[in-house]
Design goal:
two-stranded antiparallel sheet, Rossmann fold, alpha/beta, globular, five-stranded parallel sheet, 10 helices, 7 strands, 36% helix, 225 residues
Length: 225
Protein backbone atom coordinates (compact mmCIF):
# COMPACT_ATOMS: atom_id res chain seq x y z
CA UNK A 1 0.00 0.00 0.00
CA UNK A 2 2.83 2.36 0.87
CA UNK A 3 4.51 1.63 -2.48
CA UNK A 4 1.35 2.47 -4.41
CA UNK A 5 0.74 5.57 -2.31
CA UNK A 6 4.22 6.90 -3.09
CA UNK A 7 3.69 6.07 -6.75
CA UNK A 8 0.42 7.99 -6.71
CA UNK A 9 2.01 11.22 -5.49
CA UNK A 10 5.43 10.75 -7.10
CA UNK A 11 4.78 8.77 -10.29
CA UNK A 12 7.72 7.40 -12.23
CA UNK A 13 7.79 8.86 -15.71
CA UNK A 14 9.41 7.88 -18.98
CA UNK A 15 12.53 9.98 -19.52
CA UNK A 16 11.77 10.10 -23.25
CA UNK A 17 8.05 10.95 -23.54
CA UNK A 18 7.38 12.11 -19.96
CA UNK A 19 4.39 9.78 -19.60
CA UNK A 20 3.86 7.65 -16.45
CA UNK A 21 5.60 4.28 -16.44
CA UNK A 22 3.81 1.01 -15.81
CA UNK A 23 4.97 -1.38 -13.08
CA UNK A 24 6.97 -3.50 -15.56
CA UNK A 25 8.79 -0.52 -17.08
CA UNK A 26 11.98 1.24 -15.97
CA UNK A 27 13.28 4.64 -17.11
CA UNK A 28 11.85 4.28 -20.65
CA UNK A 29 8.36 3.07 -21.52
CA UNK A 30 7.99 0.13 -23.88
CA UNK A 31 6.49 2.29 -26.64
CA UNK A 32 9.48 4.64 -26.66
CA UNK A 33 11.95 1.77 -26.38
CA UNK A 34 10.46 0.14 -29.49
CA UNK A 35 10.54 3.45 -31.37
CA UNK A 36 14.14 4.39 -30.52
CA UNK A 37 16.30 4.63 -33.69
CA UNK A 38 18.79 1.85 -32.98
CA UNK A 39 21.67 1.63 -35.45
CA UNK A 40 22.68 -2.04 -35.12
CA UNK A 41 26.11 -1.00 -36.42
CA UNK A 42 27.83 -3.74 -34.41
CA UNK A 43 25.60 -6.42 -35.90
CA UNK A 44 25.96 -5.22 -39.49
CA UNK A 45 29.64 -4.19 -39.50
CA UNK A 46 28.52 -0.68 -40.50
CA UNK A 47 31.49 1.72 -40.59
CA UNK A 48 29.62 5.00 -40.00
CA UNK A 49 31.54 5.83 -36.81
CA UNK A 50 34.87 4.96 -38.38
CA UNK A 51 34.06 7.11 -41.40
CA UNK A 52 33.74 10.14 -39.12
CA UNK A 53 37.30 9.50 -37.92
CA UNK A 54 38.71 8.33 -41.25
CA UNK A 55 42.27 9.52 -41.82
CA UNK A 56 42.50 10.99 -38.33
CA UNK A 57 42.88 8.03 -35.98
CA UNK A 58 42.93 4.26 -36.34
CA UNK A 59 39.97 2.41 -34.85
CA UNK A 60 39.64 -1.35 -34.46
CA UNK A 61 35.87 -1.52 -34.01
CA UNK A 62 33.22 1.12 -33.51
CA UNK A 63 29.52 1.45 -32.82
CA UNK A 64 26.80 3.78 -31.62
CA UNK A 65 23.58 2.59 -30.01
CA UNK A 66 21.23 5.22 -31.50
CA UNK A 67 20.97 7.77 -34.28
CA UNK A 68 20.72 11.30 -32.89
CA UNK A 69 18.46 14.01 -34.28
CA UNK A 70 17.40 17.33 -32.79
CA UNK A 71 14.04 17.39 -30.97
CA UNK A 72 14.04 13.59 -30.91
CA UNK A 73 13.47 11.02 -28.21
CA UNK A 74 17.21 10.33 -28.14
CA UNK A 75 17.97 14.00 -27.55
CA UNK A 76 15.47 14.05 -24.68
CA UNK A 77 17.09 11.00 -23.10
CA UNK A 78 20.61 12.38 -23.29
CA UNK A 79 19.47 15.79 -22.07
CA UNK A 80 17.89 14.16 -19.00
CA UNK A 81 21.08 12.17 -18.45
CA UNK A 82 23.45 15.14 -18.74
CA UNK A 83 21.51 17.95 -17.12
CA UNK A 84 18.75 16.45 -14.97
CA UNK A 85 20.81 14.10 -12.75
CA UNK A 86 19.24 10.96 -14.18
CA UNK A 87 22.34 8.75 -14.20
CA UNK A 88 20.11 5.68 -14.35
CA UNK A 89 19.69 6.41 -18.06
CA UNK A 90 23.42 5.76 -18.52
CA UNK A 91 23.03 2.49 -16.65
CA UNK A 92 20.11 1.47 -18.85
CA UNK A 93 21.92 2.29 -22.10
CA UNK A 94 25.11 0.61 -20.91
CA UNK A 95 23.22 -2.55 -20.06
CA UNK A 96 21.43 -2.43 -23.41
CA UNK A 97 24.56 -2.05 -25.53
CA UNK A 98 26.66 -4.29 -23.28
CA UNK A 99 24.23 -7.19 -23.66
CA UNK A 100 24.64 -6.93 -27.43
CA UNK A 101 28.41 -6.36 -27.61
CA UNK A 102 29.26 -9.32 -25.39
CA UNK A 103 27.77 -11.63 -28.04
CA UNK A 104 30.14 -10.28 -30.72
CA UNK A 105 33.64 -11.72 -31.12
CA UNK A 106 35.23 -8.38 -32.01
CA UNK A 107 34.30 -6.93 -28.61
CA UNK A 108 35.11 -9.96 -26.46
CA UNK A 109 38.79 -9.04 -26.14
CA UNK A 110 38.41 -5.54 -24.68
CA UNK A 111 40.78 -5.09 -21.71
CA UNK A 112 39.89 -1.62 -20.45
CA UNK A 113 36.88 0.68 -20.84
CA UNK A 114 37.76 4.38 -20.61
CA UNK A 115 35.21 7.23 -20.62
CA UNK A 116 35.82 10.57 -22.29
CA UNK A 117 36.54 12.70 -19.19
CA UNK A 118 35.09 15.99 -18.03
CA UNK A 119 37.27 18.84 -16.85
CA UNK A 120 37.46 18.77 -13.05
CA UNK A 121 35.57 22.07 -12.75
CA UNK A 122 32.68 20.82 -14.86
CA UNK A 123 32.73 17.52 -12.98
CA UNK A 124 32.40 19.36 -9.66
CA UNK A 125 29.57 21.50 -11.01
CA UNK A 126 27.59 18.63 -12.54
CA UNK A 127 28.54 16.12 -9.86
CA UNK A 128 29.08 13.21 -12.25
CA UNK A 129 30.37 12.28 -15.69
CA UNK A 130 27.33 11.43 -17.80
CA UNK A 131 29.31 8.67 -19.54
CA UNK A 132 30.38 6.95 -16.32
CA UNK A 133 27.45 4.58 -15.73
CA UNK A 134 27.32 3.76 -19.45
CA UNK A 135 31.02 2.81 -19.38
CA UNK A 136 30.76 0.89 -16.12
CA UNK A 137 27.99 -1.32 -17.46
CA UNK A 138 29.85 -1.95 -20.71
CA UNK A 139 32.94 -2.96 -18.73
CA UNK A 140 30.90 -5.35 -16.61
CA UNK A 141 29.25 -6.92 -19.66
CA UNK A 142 32.60 -7.34 -21.44
CA UNK A 143 34.45 -8.55 -18.34
CA UNK A 144 36.85 -5.62 -18.69
CA UNK A 145 38.31 -3.08 -16.28
CA UNK A 146 36.67 0.34 -16.01
CA UNK A 147 39.24 3.10 -15.58
CA UNK A 148 38.33 6.78 -15.18
CA UNK A 149 41.66 7.90 -13.73
CA UNK A 150 43.84 7.31 -16.79
CA UNK A 151 42.51 9.73 -19.41
CA UNK A 152 42.24 13.24 -17.96
CA UNK A 153 41.02 16.54 -19.38
CA UNK A 154 43.35 19.42 -18.60
CA UNK A 155 41.69 22.32 -20.40
CA UNK A 156 38.13 23.55 -20.16
CA UNK A 157 35.99 24.39 -23.19
CA UNK A 158 32.65 26.10 -23.50
CA UNK A 159 29.49 24.07 -24.06
CA UNK A 160 29.10 22.69 -27.57
CA UNK A 161 25.29 22.77 -27.38
CA UNK A 162 23.72 24.67 -30.26
CA UNK A 163 26.92 24.94 -32.29
CA UNK A 164 27.12 23.83 -35.89
CA UNK A 165 29.44 20.99 -36.86
CA UNK A 166 32.24 23.24 -38.19
CA UNK A 167 32.09 25.46 -35.11
CA UNK A 168 32.30 22.38 -32.88
CA UNK A 169 35.41 21.20 -34.70
CA UNK A 170 37.05 24.64 -34.60
CA UNK A 171 36.23 25.00 -30.91
CA UNK A 172 37.75 21.66 -30.05
CA UNK A 173 40.97 22.97 -28.59
CA UNK A 174 40.42 20.42 -25.84
CA UNK A 175 43.57 19.02 -24.33
CA UNK A 176 43.83 15.64 -22.70
CA UNK A 177 46.61 13.84 -20.92
CA UNK A 178 47.24 10.26 -19.84
CA UNK A 179 48.17 9.13 -16.33
CA UNK A 180 49.77 5.74 -15.55
CA UNK A 181 50.44 5.24 -19.25
CA UNK A 182 52.35 1.99 -18.64
CA UNK A 183 49.09 0.33 -17.58
CA UNK A 184 47.78 0.71 -21.14
CA UNK A 185 50.62 -1.08 -22.90
CA UNK A 186 49.50 -4.03 -25.05
CA UNK A 187 45.85 -3.39 -24.15
CA UNK A 188 42.68 -3.18 -26.21
CA UNK A 189 40.82 -0.06 -25.06
CA UNK A 190 37.14 0.71 -25.52
CA UNK A 191 36.78 4.51 -25.52
CA UNK A 192 33.21 5.59 -24.70
CA UNK A 193 31.28 8.85 -25.06
CA UNK A 194 27.69 10.05 -25.28
CA UNK A 195 27.48 11.47 -28.83
CA UNK A 196 29.85 11.50 -31.78
CA UNK A 197 29.38 14.45 -34.15
CA UNK A 198 32.56 15.71 -35.81
CA UNK A 199 34.67 13.17 -33.92
CA UNK A 200 37.07 15.88 -32.75
CA UNK A 201 36.86 14.96 -29.06
CA UNK A 202 37.33 11.24 -29.67
CA UNK A 203 40.22 12.01 -32.01
CA UNK A 204 41.93 14.11 -29.32
CA UNK A 205 41.46 11.36 -26.76
CA UNK A 206 42.73 8.65 -29.10
CA UNK A 207 45.79 10.73 -29.95
CA UNK A 208 47.02 10.88 -26.36
CA UNK A 209 46.07 7.25 -25.65
CA UNK A 210 48.17 6.19 -28.62
CA UNK A 211 51.26 7.42 -26.83
CA UNK A 212 51.10 4.06 -25.03
CA UNK A 213 52.91 1.16 -26.69
CA UNK A 214 51.12 -1.42 -28.80
CA UNK A 215 47.51 -0.55 -27.98
CA UNK A 216 44.27 -0.99 -29.89
CA UNK A 217 41.35 1.43 -29.64
CA UNK A 218 37.70 0.70 -30.25
CA UNK A 219 34.85 3.17 -29.78
CA UNK A 220 31.30 2.92 -28.44
CA UNK A 221 28.92 5.85 -28.04
CA UNK A 222 25.32 6.25 -27.02
CA UNK A 223 24.47 8.01 -30.26
CA UNK A 224 25.81 9.32 -33.56
CA UNK A 225 24.66 12.60 -35.08
Amino acid sequence: MLYHLVDLFFPKICYACQQPLHDNEASICLDCRHDLPVTNFHFTSDKSVEKVLYGRTKVENSTALFRFEKKSTVQQLIHNLKYKNHEEIGTLLGNWLGAELKTIEAYQHIDIVIPVPLHKKKLRKRGYNQVAKFGEQLAEALNAEYKDDILLKVSKTKSQVGKKRLARWQNNSEQFTVSHIHTLENKHILLVDDIITTGATLESCATVLNSAKNIKISIATMAIA
